[in-house]
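pinging the channel bc i need a second pair of eyes. not urgent but kinda urgent?? the chain im working w is below, pasted from the shared doc
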Amino acid sequence: MLQTLLAPLQPKPAGVPVAPLAYRPSHLTHVEQVYDNGRVDVAVVIYWPAIDGLEGGSLDNYRVQVQAGHRPWLDLTPPNLGSELGPNYWSGQLQTIAPGTALTFRYRPGSGVWKPLVPMTSLDRVYSTLYVPNPQYTWKNSPPRFDQGRVLLETTLEGLLAGYGRGVLAPRSREEMFQDSIVQQIAKTDIPGQLSEWAIDLVMAPLASSMADRACLNYKFNYLTYDVADVDWQLGTSQDLMRLVDIFYEQGITLVPDLIFVHQVSQPFDGSLDQVNRPHSNQPLYVDTQARQFRDYGTWMFKLEDPEVRRQLVEKMVAFVTQYHYKLIRLDYLDGLILQYSDRSVNYGAIFLQELRTALKLADPHLRILGETFEAHNHWVIKNCVDIFYSPFGFSVLDELYSFPWRRYRPLFPDLNRILPDLNYIIHWKRPNALYAQLHDETCADEHISSGRPHTPWAYGFNPAELAKRQGEALVQMGQWQTCDLLDYVRRMVRVTEALTLFSCNLLYMYVPAVDALTLGSSLEQDHWKVQWQGVTPEQLITWKATGLREADIAFYHGQHRADMIALRRLFRRYTVVDPDTQRPLTEVRVCHSDGENAVLGLWRSSAMAPESSLLVLFNLGNHGFHRDRNVYECPVPKGCVGTWEVMFDGDWIAPEWRLDPKAPEPLGYPPGTILRSGPGVFLHQIPVLSLNLGARSLLVLKYHREGSRF
């Protein structure tokens, strides 16, 4: 890649023009024409309003220039009041340029010295240097059609690669990534196929140029971007990414870019947008000097009251989305965008969002916008802009399930009265939503985000398994649990918490890799940014061996947990009905059973469009198990559902291939496919019930069969 980008390039005959690009931003430097020999014409457009304040004076001393590779500097045409671009844009043409050619910009304000300029464009870039992309790519696969519930994994592309194949392909340095980019390496692996096997439909990752060293990731820097929507050079070129998106489509997976445009890093290099000033007032051209609600770490926010800045941002993002055939994008931190102008007479953040949505939907009516919003989620502009709302599954639900035992009335049983209000609120929310049990922010031990849970600071900064482990250790100290059973306790708690979130969804479930891997600690610790594809890490072995477990036991619990989570996601996808044209959820979810004494909760998932897809999901969140040798659990069936039920999943069932001792007695759980029938109960003899074996901190997924239906 380094040689491609930096080698001197000599002009050649143009060749024959081919079909124009699908979208060409008129107010950004972009590829204007493509030829069959691969060369392109570039339309150069630079926003620098030197004409402001001249009052009829001369532009003779003001200049903007571009240099292509080793060609001479080219003066751009000064703006004029009659230009189609408007009075503040400099323009020019570069003809028959080879992809990979470096473009350098500079400007001179009056009689001053030349200053570097790195404008907003639709080109490739490596820090302060812009490169002509290769826009020619023949797409082989169409985006998947979604007519069922979807599962989204939030991760990073470098995290996927670094953990794959014991890290053999992981980049060791930025220099290595110049030679063989992350995206190129992923394309050589079976990572997309493995993700498909994990029952994943969407992979959401930050792609934009950032200050992160992607060979040694730190979340804080991954979100400090210096371009709104592009491909970080460490990931690869635009051509590399188009190929990877296509490969994902082949596996039925959609790559979702996490667009981070609310907090740009300050002064990353000479000529960055936050260093460009208006020539006469010397005021920042792109920076909102009065902005509030900054995200973190010395960033700046765009001056959205300037309509030209808004126009360029919109064109930049539309060009990015259309180039890569994205069908779902995530807009990061919309609260900051709205709150940026909340104390001013006009909310230009809201105006920008309206303009952005209009342009995106015009370019692709099928595009869906996933919005991160909390404080401002009821703002009318956000409600009209966002197609799918991205939010954690009620804080009280997660806090109660993982709460320390001394915070509960009964240490071994969560209080359903604390869980049900948030649960009912979220499942009856009328907007399409994407549910998370725990956001990536919540798993990072970082003070600037801990305000999200001011009353439960203990719940911030830890992965789900760590929260469950701390809860279990407290029970051990209280004499309520055995140390040797701690890992089984952890995997059951993580499974039941994530499954409650999963089956409360009617559209989109989101999770992080730490869920399947039972990753301990914080996401910022050690190598936790790497996806753990299989097995057990040395850190986990040390931790769990100290509880008295053998390595075989530790491997069993981790392997069983991962297999369970994949099986549950597959059931969710298969039995969650979605209108493929509108992506409107067609599965209704409601609480059909609540037993506060035993902390048992039932969800009924039904669809009028597909009654054969109805599921009853029963969660035992407490410590009492109900089995044949004790009392079975009597669960009233949903109204009108008397008859035959099929067991789709039982958290106490262990498949033969996972059992440590093949000669051990059969597990207490039901094998998949077991047929049960409802009837009168012993304790509830006046209503039809299912008499069930139900393990502690476990769950059952049951499918109802109407009379006369085939199995």
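so The CA atoms of residues 653 and 669 lie 4 Å apart. and The radius of gyration is 28 Å. — does that match what u expected or am i reading it wrong
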